[in-house]
């Protein structure tokens, strides 16, 4: 998967992501109102909350929020990270299923800073489980962006929460962990993109291409042109349909793409099997 944020003029902020996976993932679009009663779905000691903001989201397997935007323009994206290691959950603490991690953020926060300040307190434990119908443990990291262009990345490394918070953190892919993604991008930034860009389907190469192209497409406040430009970037970082590499989940076919216009609150979705963009 790839995630990239366009930071244009006149508060034009647009976040795009691709969903790459080796198998078909049933995706559904849901619109949730504010005021919904929620719980963390890990048993009797689940965290509970009432949604403060409405949201439009894309689900996986109809039981996990994978991507979405709330009514305040906060966007949350879950991407695969094989290096993830979550804390042990002994059920004595409050718990939240990883399937609701992104939804919890969309329901409760209007800005990246709000989310970072609250999630840093670790009032509950993220609990992961197997992907439905498989023996593969769900290992994900979370990126969020808001209508001001602020960004944060949340990862669990060695059982510890690591938060990378900076407005410049506008690209994320899969492996390696985010700090190493930044180091790889620093290396490539010394090589002009007009001369050479890494072109494989590997996550590190997609990170470099997304970083380069999101800065070189036209800077405009025209929503139609800006959205078209961002779509072109996320398509450039997509993996051709039908490709998968055994034992390398980071190299898998792109299944769908989503683009969030955070200024105008328009959410675009494109499934590769029905290649027409629709929006709400």
Q: What is the gist of this entry?
A:
With 280 residues, this protein is an alpha+beta fold.
Low-pLDDT segments? none
Distance between the termini: 23 Å
- H and E string: EEEEEEEEEHHEEEEEHHHEEEEE
Radius of gyration, Cα only, in angstroms?
18 Å
Q: In the CATH classification, which architecture applies?
A: 4-Layer Sandwich
Mean of all residue-level pLDDT scores: 94
Shape: globular
Spatial order of strands in the largest sheet: 3-6-7-8-11-12-13
In terms of quaternary structure, the protein is single chain
**CATH topology name:** Penicillin V Acylase, Chain A
Number of helices: 5
Strand content: 35-45%
Considering DSSP H and I runs of 4 or more, what fraction of the residues is helical? 10-25%
- The structure class reads alpha+beta
The main β sheet shows up as: 7 strands, antiparallel
Number of strands: 19
What does this structure look like?
It is a single chain. The protein is of the alpha+beta class. The chain has a single domain (2-279), classed as Penicillin V Acylase, Chain A (4-Layer Sandwich), CATH 3.60.60.10. The protein is 20% helix and 35% strand. It contains five helices and 19 strands. It has helices spanning 101-108, 112-119, 178-189, 203-216, 223-236; strands at residues 2-7, 13-20, 27-32, 37-39, 48-50, 55-60, 64-70, 75-80, 95-97, 125-127, 140-145, 151-157, 160-165, 171-172, 244-245, 248-252, 254-261, 266-271, 274-279. A seven-stranded antiparallel β-sheet has the order 3-6-7-8-11-12-13, with helices on one face. A six-stranded antiparallel β-sheet has the order 14-1-2-17-18-19, covered by helices on one side. Strand 7 (64-70) and strand 8 form a beta hairpin. Helix 3 crosses helix 4 (203-216). The chain is globular. The two termini are 23 Å apart. 42% of the residues are buried.
């Amino acid at each position: 998967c790839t995630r990239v944020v366009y930071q244009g003029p006149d508060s034009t902020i647009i976040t795009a992501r691709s969903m790459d996976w080796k198998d078909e993932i049933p995706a559904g679009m849901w619109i949730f109102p504010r005021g919904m009663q929620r719980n963390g779905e890990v048993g009797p000691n689940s965290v509970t909350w009432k949604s403060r903001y409405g949201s439009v989201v894309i689900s996986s397997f109809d039981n996990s929020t994978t991507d979405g935007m709330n009514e305040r323009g906060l966007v949350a994206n879950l991407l695969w990270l094989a290096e993830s290691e979550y804390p042990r959950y002994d059920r004595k603490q409050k718990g939240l299923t990883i399937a609701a991690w992104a939804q919890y953020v969309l329901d409760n926060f209007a800005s990246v800073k709000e989310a970072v300040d609250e999630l840093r307190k670790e009032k509950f434990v993220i609990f992961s489980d197997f992907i439905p119908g498989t023996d593969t443990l769900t290992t994900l990291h979370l990126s969020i962006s808001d209508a001001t262009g602020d960004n944060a990345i949340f990862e669990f490394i060695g059982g510890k929460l690591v938060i990378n918070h900076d407005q410049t953190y506008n690209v994320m892919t899969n492996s390696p962990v985010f700090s190493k993604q930044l180091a790889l991008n620093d290396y490539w930034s010394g090589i002009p993109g007009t001369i050479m860009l890494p072109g494989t389907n590997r996550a590190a190469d997609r990170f470099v291409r997304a970083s380069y192209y999101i800065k070189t497409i036209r800077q405009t406040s025209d929503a139609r042109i800006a959205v078209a430009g961002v779509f072109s970037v996320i398509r450039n970082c997509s993996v051709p349909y039908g490709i998968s590499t055994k034992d390398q989940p980071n190299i898998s076919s792109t299944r769908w793409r989503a683009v969030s216009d955070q200024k105008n609150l328009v959410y675009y979705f494109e499934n590769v099997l029905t290649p027409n963009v629709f929006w709400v």
